Amino acid sequence: MKNLFYTPEKRDDYNNQMHSLGRIFTWVALAIIVFVPVAYALAAGEQPDWALLANCLPFIAGYWAIGLIEAVSYAPLLGTGGQYLSFITGNIANLKLPCAINSQNVLKVEQGSEQQEIVTTISIAVSSIVTTIIIIIGLIPLLIFQNEIVSVLKPISPYVMPSIFGGLTMVVIAKYYKIAIIPFLGCIVVCVLGYSLGFGSSLSVATMIIIGMVISGISTTFLYRAQKKKAARLEAAQAPSEPNNKDVENKY
Amino acid sequence: MRESYVIIYVIGAIIAAMIIGMSVVFLIKAIKRAKAIGMDKKSITETVKNSAIFSIVPSIPIVVGIGIMMPYLGLAIPWIRLTVIGALQYEVSAAFAAGAMSNTATTAQIVTAIIVMTLSIISGPLFNAIFYKKFQNKLASIQEKNKHKMDSITGALLAGMLAGIISALIVGGAFGVGAPITDTSGITTYGEITLITLSTSIVIMLVCGAIMILGKQKWIESYALPISILGSLLVALAFVPVFAA
């Protein structure tokens, strides 16, 4: 327990501490979250419809797969602290990650650096606090003016994603345009084909994020290997013209 | 509106307190670490300020989401569901799968819907609690051995995410022109407004960039994204009655 309270000097120790804290909070959160349906059933004095629940198993399995893919694919982007926080508080693609990217960009932190990890954790922690407080504050007017609030704000709900990602794409495009162009074109083709063939409604933003990451992973691997080969060729071409240690030794 | 039980409000309050507590602990740990590695106070303050300002506008639709689910599930359950991991579209789909998004739904269907919502989202946190440390150590070892490779992986994931989102918005918007879509929660999306909002957000960001560079107004960098989000949402709000008519 003492290990959770001291401030580590080394990066590895800090990381381990974040893992320990993250795991504790995650288990506690899971226990409380899972208790919600039990408490509701007890309070209502009603059992679930077991047959209906069995029918919903494919739905649950589908979301389990999505959840695992998201946990693996977001991990390198969120950092240790950000990962634990984001997977408890949710709204990752539409709030937590853009918020962290914005802060990284404003501070111009180096990719993969410890500063990036820290800025990401601070951003996601602050964002989680602000969102939780706004939700709590929103509950009171919602109880009184539910119809009015929903009727005014509901129509603009679908446009929050384009409002965030229009500006955010402009901010990060300079950094990633070389590796983003192939997945972008690939995703456009998938979307156009999907909509033309009549299954456009299945291509939600969440689905397209996974498709985009897969295409980007494949294309970046090819680009990475091509770069590596090019660098090796250049090295090989330069090697004979440069005197090596033996040549230098022979001269003397 | 469906009844909410006191015990569910109490659990909701515990969850909200736990999330704030967890965030505060992580925030303090990260700030202490930032100071330990020599990050200046100004950068830390700026990160806190930027993140707080950025998070306000995108949080409002979450409150609206609670309002949409309230008539069917009461106030406490949507509050809990949208405070922890999950999102409106997913919660509504889960409630639909269990037949709970109806005024005639039985209590057994509501209990079933809450179980479906709960079980569906726990794979991510479970992965974190059991496997994430090992997985992250693997990522750290890649980073240590070959930083360029790790940068390529994170760059590819981020670029893929942006490519996926932008293409879904552009193509979804283009195919939605003249053919508005109403989803299971009753929200209608107009393709024209999606494209207008996206373009407005881009234009406002470019204008902010121009002011920052040409007008040498460095301060605007911190506010550029919140300004473009708010500005483009106001434009969307102005266009909704036009297309709804």
Explain this structure to me?
- The complex is a heterodimer of chains A (252) and B (245).
- Chain A is an all-alpha fold.
- Chain A has helices at 11-44, 50-55, 57-89, 92-107, 114-153, 160-196, 205-238, 245-251.
- Chain A has one domain (49-235).
- Chain A has eight helices and no strands.
- In chain A, helix 1 (11-44) packs across helix 3 (57-89), helix 3 (57-89) runs parallel beside helix 4 (92-107) and helix 6 crosses helix 7 (205-238).
- The longest helix of chain A has 40 residues, at 114-153.
- Chain A starts with 10 loop residues before the first helix and ends with a helix.
- The relative contact order of chain A is 0.05.
- With 245 residues, chain B is mainly α.
- Helix content of chain B is 80%, strand content 2%.
- Chain B is globular and about 60 Å long.
- The model of chain B has no long low-confidence stretch (mean pLDDT 89).
- Chains A and B meet through helix 1, helix 2, helix 3, helix 4 and helix 5 of A and helix 1, helix 2, helix 3, helix 4 and helix 5 of B.
Radius of gyration of chain A: 25 Å
Q: How helical, in percent, are the residues of chain B?
A: over 70%
- As a percent range, the share of strand residues of chain B is under 5%
Enumerate the spans of chain B where pLDDT stays under 50 for 5 or more consecutive residues. Answer: none
Main sheet strand line-up of chain B: 1-2
* Low-pLDDT residue intervals, each spanning 5 or more residues of chain A: 246-252
